[in-house]
Amino acid sequence: MTAGRRRVAVTGLGVVLAAGTGADALWQALLGAPPEGHRAVADWDPSLWLGVAEARHTDRFTQFAVAAAASAVEDAGNPRTAPDASGVVLGTALAGVGTLERQALVRSDRGDKRVSPFTVPMIMPNAAAAAVSQRLGRRGPCRTVTTACAAGTDAIGSAARLIADGVCDSVLTGGTEAALSDTVVAAFHNMRALSPGGRTRPFDAGRDGFAIAEGAAVLLLEAYEAAAERGARVYAEVLGHASTADAYDITLPLPDGSAAARCMLLALRDAGLGPADVGQVSAHGTGTRHGDLAEARALTSVFGSGGPPVTSAKGITGHAFGASGAIEAVAAILSMAHGLIPPVAGLATEDAELGGALDLVRETPRTWAVGPVLSNSFGFGGHNGCLVLGPPAT
Amino acid sequence: MADGVFEAVVACVVDVLQVPAGKVVEEAVFTEDLGATSLTLVEVVMALEETFGIDVPEADVEAVRTVGDACDLVRGLT
């Protein structure tokens, strides 16, 4: 973060996904076979983190965030930070849509008087960040970013800025999503965004949309020097972030990918890096016809041919919308820790229309010279978010 | 009164507020003794409406301070 005064360390990881709870469950999933269908967090039990009354009064997207945030703090060794210098910045796209759907049905079936008085505080997008702040006593900035599927990435960038600028010493950040409601699934289906076979196949010639995922990923960010001083395990460093807008269409990406490309270059500039410094691209790669094509064009314009290896986690994870950027940030960090880049699951035959310039990681994990990772996220509304993460300084 | 109202009210309060049944006595004040908030008190009244098949007017909700008040409210409407 060249504009900021302080370096930003990632010291804790918390993950709640269909694949399981914890960063290792994500890593094992990324090295395994792609599941079929939507990725619900099956048999979710909020009682590990919330009382019965609290669980009743929180939507799943908030419950996932509370669990992931608590896990991230625990993973970091429960560091003590001053409440006033401790922030929360979370992303979500569809927030408490499941609660809204249920209460709309209650109202339709049984009338106005049966609608829960907790409906509004359950569905509001900031409910998750507010719950994390409240439960962990974090009294610094508490914000919610809603840039659709770029929200997780933009949240982390925004959180890192709070530390770089000296506003916070510690920020819990990431994304959360629980949007597998029947109405949302039907809506995505009707807009032809979902893969009829339930298989996300990024950059494949036969790609036909994505599968929806639930879950949350939260990272604990701390001021680098302070984290190093207390002997914290530093997973990675947040080096840069940028966001741009397509100013084009509410769902379709700008076809030439130019605003996405500009976002990548601005994020690299924020990190004080150039395209040649990037060791890996974690693509948005949702497996939609238009999205992957625009991203491929953007990547080609930034890196040319001979660019860094490109992967996409979504063949395994499915698309968790506002949580996806945070899940992929964790995946990138794990990729640094393990010295391996997981392959693009679901990619069998690269789409020739993509131009052939991308070095897509195919079939098996690839060893790599660990370096900065550019992680892309793009959202409905034309939101582009790019994050640059680096391995911990040695 | 052995009309079963108190016992049914206790069951609603225990379920909604997640408090031990032993704390739900006639004199217990919802906010101070049972940890209710304005919103959870609304939920208690909604649970009473469901259980007893009654319709509690808005003005009556505000008059409910204790568990005994809730029992009287139910008896007045059943």
From TrEMBL, chain A:
It comes from Streptomyces eurocidicus. GO terms for molecular function: 3-oxoacyl-[acyl-carrier-protein] synthase activity. The keyword Kinase does not apply. Keywords: Acyltransferase, Transferase. One of its GO terms (cellular component) is cytosol. It comes from the Bacteria. GO terms for biological process: fatty acid biosynthetic process. InterPro entries: Beta-ketoacyl_synthase, Ketoacyl_synth_AS, Ketoacyl_synth_C, Ketoacyl_synth_N, PKS_Beta-ketoAc_synthase_dom, Thiolase-like. Pfam families: ketoacyl-synt, Ketoacyl-synt_C. CDD domains: KAS_I_II. The keyword Transcription does not apply. Its EC number is 2.3.1.179. Belongs to the thiolase-like superfamily. Beta-ketoacyl-ACP synthases family. Residues 5-391 form the Ketosynthase family 3 (KS3) domain. This is 3-oxoacyl-[acyl-carrier-protein] synthase II.
TrEMBL record, chain B:
The gene is acpP. Residues 3-78 form the Carrier domain. It comes from the Bacteria. Carrier of the growing fatty acid chain in fatty acid biosynthesis. Keywords: Cytoplasm, Fatty acid biosynthesis, Fatty acid metabolism, Lipid biosynthesis, Lipid metabolism, Phosphopantetheine, Phosphoprotein. One of its GO terms (biological process) is antibiotic biosynthetic process. The keyword Coiled coil does not apply. 4'-phosphopantetheine is transferred from CoA to a specific serine of apo-ACP by AcpS. This modification is essential for activity because fatty acids are bound in thioester linkage to the sulfhydryl of the prosthetic group. Its main location: cytoplasm. SMART domains: PKS_PP. Pathway: Lipid metabolism; fatty acid biosynthesis. The modification O-(pantetheine 4'-phosphoryl)serine is found at residue 38. Belongs to the acyl carrier protein (ACP) family. PANTHER family: ACYL CARRIER PROTEIN, CARRIER DOMAIN-CONTAINING PROTEIN. This is Acyl carrier protein. It comes from Streptomyces eurocidicus (Streptoverticillium eurocidicus). It is found in: Cytoplasm. One of its GO terms (cellular component) is cytosol. One of its GO terms (molecular function) is phosphopantetheine binding.
